[in-house]
Design a protein that fits this description.
This protein is mostly helical. It has 3 helices and 3 strands. Strand 1 (113-117) and strand 2 (120-125) form a beta hairpin. The protein starts with a helix and ends in a 5-residue tail after the last strand.
């Protein structure tokens, strides 16, 4: 019986000794190591931000192209099919609940320009630079 107690004490001592050995072997990170990790995280953040911002602009252009070449022209054609003419303004389509008010602006929150022409209509967005009349304008009459 005494031997079992001594063995138990020996096991407890061994556990304590192992814990002390592990604690002595551990060391914290140095300031240099932390700074290197932070620099790497910063570089990864910059790369991601650059790639995401380019994708964001492409998505905005695509959304506006869809709005100008498909969504609004579809509503305009439906209006013309029942009334035999295009509306004087896009707000008419909002009043008739064929479009929502937020569909009358492009991805850059600028109002779309709309005019009835002799052969249909012209619908344009100022494009990414938000200025009408430039080469980056997005219109329903653009040939792609």
């Amino acid at each position: 019986m005494i031997e079992a107690r001594n063995m138990e004490i020996t096991l407890d001592d061994a556990r304590r000794e192992a814990v002390v050995r592990l604690a002595r072997g551990k060391r914290g990170m140095t300031l240099i190591e932390i700074m290197v990790v932070m620099a790497i995280i910063g570089l990864i953040g910059v790369v991601v931000a650059v790639n995401v911002s380019g994708s964001q602009q492409e998505a905005e252009v695509m959304a506006t192209q869809t709005l100008v070449t498909s969504t609004i022209p579809g509503a305009l054609d439906a209006y013309r099919a029942t009334r035999r003419e295009y509306p004087e303004s896009l707000e008419t389509l909002v009043e008739l609940k064929r479009l929502r008010k937020n569909q009358l602006v492009d991805s850059w929150l600028k109002p779309l320009s709309y005019e009835v022409t002799s052969d249909g209509f012209r619908l344009c967005s100022g494009g990414p630079d938000k200025t009408p009349g430039n080469t980056d304008d997005i219109c329903n009459t653009d040939d792609e």
